[in-house]
Amino acid sequence: MVYQSIEKAKDSYDVIVVGSGLGGLTVSNRLARAGHRVLLLEHHHRLGGLATWFKRKNHIFDVSLHGFPYGMVKTCRKYWNEAIKNSIVQLKHIVFDNPQFSLTTTFDRQDFTRILQEKFGISGTVIDDFFVTVRKMNFYDDLAMSTRELFEEFFPGRTDVHRLLMEPITYANGSTLDDPAITYGIVFSNFMDKGVFTFQGGTDHLIGMMRDELEANGVTICTNSKVERIVIEKGRVKGVMVDDRVISAPCVISNSGITNTVDSLAGREAFPEDFLDAFDKVKINNSSCQVYMGIKPGESFPDVGDLLFTSTAPNFDSLEMRDMKTKSRTFSIYYPQTRPANPDYTVVASMNGNYDDWAALSDEEYQAAKQEMIERSLVDLERYIPDIRSKIDWLEAATPKTFSRYTLHTKGASFGTKFPGLDISRKIFKVVPGLFHVGSVGIIMSGWLGAINYGVIVANDADAFLRS
Amino acid sequence: MTRGEIKNVILEIIADIDEDADMADLNPDEPLRDQLDLDSMDFLDIVMELRKRYKLQIPEADYPELATLTSCINYLEPKLKAL
Ligand SMILES: Cc1cc2nc3c(=O)[nH]c(=O)nc-3n(C[C@H](O)[C@H](O)[C@H](O)COP(=O)(O)OP(=O)(O)OC[C@H]3O[C@@H](n4cnc5c(N)ncnc54)[C@H](O)[C@@H]3O)c2cc1C
To answer: In angstroms, what CA-CA distances link A318 with A37, A78, A273, A324, A351?
Structure first.
């Protein structure tokens, strides 16, 4: 992909978007379509943020294309285009395998109802009540109830049921049983609507289609362009500092993490004390680790499932899942139909992770820890594909340090912040006119669907500001 | 704009948002959300489109006014009278 270099950017725009994650891309597209002149700046050499991929040998590895809810169909049709919408396909073969249960599901309400009844012996009325309760949850509802309390109310003492309901969501957004039940209810219901979906053609294909749409709508895109500073004068946004020059705009939308946006890009001096008090209480979410495996050309293996939630830990435990030596990981299996134009088999093992654990290691320890993680992942995968080792021609690991380096997110946060971050993100423009934040926050606004929809919400705020 | 013109504008915007929306037997006094399967994102789209077309700013606190077709028209009538 070739983008314009920053020297060619004009001196002023209506809006400057800092960062090209799915939130930044979507806010750019919406505002350009609404008639504003938009400059999109990205520090990396490609667009997409965490929605990214990389090439090794003849393989293309997808980093965050493991599955998203059906809601993406409507969202992509409305806010992107038909071609993007039409690339969405279902992943029908989801596997759970742990000491408490092993099962295969399409991961939707109907199939979960069947499983909860037949395998777990839960009564149909309890299951229906549970689904109705979580479906009705709204982000402005009461926050007092935790997910743990929600589960105890419907399935008291049933740690196996809690695991079935929670484990995938902990992978999807880092939330735990102690987070507000509404964050669980909203995300879980989104998935249960119709199951788990993916993009045929891969992340590279999607981001390429998004770039074409942005260009057709007149967005100026500059990559390799790290914004050093958001310029704020007399309490109002004036533009950004990039490549030793100021590009001016009355409206700047940061897709950088909320902590970076306040602490580094805008600078704490731009905000009043009560805002900073609330901001300092916001906790960021955990980071991730991954192991990427490429299969030799000509080799294959049978269908063992699309997404495997595996663990040898006795119980669900979100702390265990973030441990460097976790026994819990998901395997995303990419079959040749993922990229019909470039058929290949790849496997990505994903784990949650803590930045501090990995950052504390010496170089030598870090390399060794990565090797051990690769080895543990292989041993686990052998349970499903026994001869996998002999078929692999590429093995590589990513850690929280890797995610931090590519996205600049504080401590490599994979899923933004805990719930209170949403309020900070939503009110930042009321404190500094012209300054907006978009991107993973508050658990519910993370993931591909959350980040895109949040881009639409912030575009509406920014449009109102620009037309006022 | 007359009430009839406002109604047509709203129906046109909704048709753009949801191409499958069946507006033929829409009850003007029942929530649009229930009849047309509109979600909160769809209402945001209506707000943004009205702002684009008529420079109309609808504050978040007023979103409930857009619940039914009749309440939409009542709310928008004084604001779009001059157009
Ligand atoms: C391992 C992993 C797996 C995941 N799997 C899934 C999944 O299967 N399904 C799902 O729905 N979600 C998944 N997610 C979550 C999803 O990828 C993210 O929530 C979403 O992509 C985040 O979008 P965002 O808009 O917040 O921006 P981000 O993707 O976080 O991007 C922010 C962008 O801003 C840029 N930037 C930051 N600072 C600057 C600066 N100063 N100047 C210029 N540019 C800057 C960064 O380079 C980056 O491109 C996964 C995440 C991870 C880490």
So the answer is: 44, 36, 34, 12, 11
